[in-house]
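Figure 2 data, in text form.
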Amino acid sequence: MHASLSKRLKEGGFLLLLAIGAYFLMALFSYSPDDPSWVFESAKQHADNAGGVAGAWAASVLFMLFGKVAYVFPLMIAWGGWLMFRERDDQQHSVYLRIARWIGFVLTVLSATALASLRMGGLDSLPEGPGGITGDLISSSGTAVLNEAGAILLLLTLLLVGITLFAGVSWLAVMDGVGGFLLNVWRQ
């Protein structure tokens, strides 16, 4: 593909994903259980949600399935758009990278919902809990097999692996950076 066209498509894709992420974030922050949605029946005819009826439905479904972790979705969508915009044009490399990012996205969301269900139990006002239906299912299955400590260890590991695959974060580089910063502070 011509380099100029490829760059324009990437930029357009980034802007589109940024707008989608902003829309979902707006819908989630303006969520009200009183709005009509797929999950909750309401006597109201209109939605107070800033995203309208579609935003109310989207927020309701995301909160039901993923709990408070739903707030991560818009950020990951926007970040995914940025990563897509920044990636090279190497076709073979691109396919494997996108597969790794999707796997990372799924690992991050699933492990985060389960951790939210395990560790934020009484801190949530959502009907399905802080991790939603997904988090409850994964955390109850994990604790049944590994007990709570083992499940938390596995889920934290999967969360870090997911973030690494999705965002390209090197935890060793993070540790080196923090260590270097602390050594510089200590020397002063």
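Caption note: Residues 90-188 form one domain.
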